[in-house]
Amino acid sequence: MGKGASRNAITKSMIENFEIPCPPLMVQCRIAEIISCYDSLIENYQKQIKLLEEAAQRLYKEWFVDLRFPGYENTKIVDGLPEGWKKKQIKDICNLITSGGTPSRNNKDFWNNGNIKWVKTKELNDTWIIDTEEYITEAGLNNSSAKLFPSNTILMAIYASPTLGRLGILGHEACCNQAALGFIPNKLVSWQWLFYKLYELRDKFNSIARGAGQQNISAVVVKDTEIVVPDKNMIDKYTSFVADIFNQQKKLICKIKLLTEARDRMLPKLMNGEFL
Prior knowledge:
The strands form 4 sheets. The chain has a 5-stranded mixed beta sheet. The protein is built from 7 helices and 12 strands. The chain is of the alpha+beta class. It folds into 2 domains: 23-75 and 232-275, Orthogonal Bundle (Helix Hairpins); 86-229, DNA methylase specificity domains (Adenine-n6-DNA-methyltransferase TaqI, Chain A, domain 2, Alpha-Beta Complex), CATH 3.90.220.20. This is Restriction endonuclease subunit S. InterPro entries: Restrct_endonuc_typeI_TRD, Restrct_endonuc_typeI_TRD_sf, Type-I_RS_S_subunit. One of its GO terms (molecular function) is DNA binding. Belongs to the type-I restriction system S methylase family.
């Protein structure tokens, strides 16, 4: 369509005269009923994920922002902080903070039939990353600045509003583009606690980016950002509460992925009269 003209364009009349299959109303209703079952289940899982996110975030705020952590009533305040809590830079609590990279788009060997997940910042939605839109090859990984991060690595977008500061947790090992940083914490903190610390810092990072006039934030600025780090015992307590929450979220997101794929595979067959 549109190729026979001097310009590759679709006209209004082409759209109006385009024939599409139109099953009987009873069949349409049956198709809608089947698809609705999938959509309802997906929506239910999404609501469960939202409730789990709110629970983990609410507990983080109560303990580490409002300072209503277990035993706070009997905890001494030393230099303005609960005893045992320290001011540190983000780089002090991580084994690795580094950006990703993009293999050359001009080399098909870096992309065709790739099996290594490659995350773009638009795929960061403050939750688990189970799959990606694009994959790169081993050659693409080895011939670019891309790095292969392990599962549970936290990714954070560092380029341009509205994505700057958005987070993701790798459900499987993967790479990312240069517009994101990967964080692997050391033994001082857990990745679950670090996730919500970075979430807490989002407004600050965006303010810094706006002040710089370029809407981006550098890895150096992120690494040097000063934060308050609770004592290890308190972080371990928090992690013990939220670890299962994160695991449940991951399982639900995997279920949503499978349901979405099954629904999308089934729809063309339903439209063709199969399964009815």
